[in-house]
Design a protein that fits this description.
Blueprint lengths: L2 H14 L5 H13 L3 H6 L7 H15 L4 H5 L1 E4 L2 E4 L12 H10 L7 E5 L5 H9 L4 E6 L2 H13 L6 E5 L10 E6 L14 H6 L13 H13 E10 L5 H10 L2 E8 L5 E8 L1
Helix pairs in contact: 1-2, 1-4, 2-4, 6-7
The chain binds glutamine.
The site of glutamine has 10 residues, from loops.
Length: 280
Amino acid sequence: MDINLAISQGSKNLRDKFIPNSQLDAEILMAQTLKKDRNYILLNPKTFLNKNNLDKFNNLIKERSLGKPIAHLIKRKFFWNSEFLVSNNTLIPRPDTELIVENVLKLTKQRNKISILDIGVGSGCILLSILQERQNFYGTGIDISKKCLNISKINATKLKICSRLKLYKSDVDKFNLGKYDLIVSNPPYIKRCKIKYLERDVAEFEPKLALDGGLDGLSEIRKVIKKSSELIKKNGKFILEIGFDQKNEVINLLKKKGFYINSTQKDLAKNDRCIICTKI
Ligand code: GLN
């Protein structure tokens, strides 16, 4: 069987299982099977597939048809300017989260040698993207999951920023090290009872630890705000990702902990997604 026919059949299998973007997914999975890029796949439709590769491809299609995210199948996801290793223990980086990076870069144009804390660093996508753009900034990432920290570390090594990065396994409540010019966080903020209604790819395959915001969706956000208010320097900036319906409650929590709200920003779908504030 040639590449083109295998992709058509794979794509049809995905379509039959209601997977959106079935053609694109099949092409990406073929590229992964052959360890080539997508251009190669598109430019060589008639190349014959040996049985080993055909089996590999069909297995990937099978997993995708059950809802496993493409990022998990190919173990990577592009975010900001880089490709990040991901696993099923890390939240898959979302384009909406690039808002945090964008805002940090805007806020720090004139800054030198500042130290940044990322609470719930996950794959490292936020902190490492910032450190990559700002060669004289220093980063600290904490996460409760050792498996996430291992992934962050690999990503930092690939991006050659290990020397400016410290990673700690810690619960947000228990971390008490240092004072920071800037703090970022994309904490879990989905209401526990709503998790099962997220897209199947997310609900069934992404780590609950990175999604579950407790009964009201705010339990981790509360902890992150409290800890940030303790570890941030006076006039330091705090940039936080929130759920689409959490803006007012989170603004109140921030004000109570001594933050001045600079702005809130909407994501690509026009939902409130990011709050920028300053410790006063
Ligand atoms: N934005 C993610 C989602 O909708 C949730 C991320 C989070 O809880 N931090 O799936």
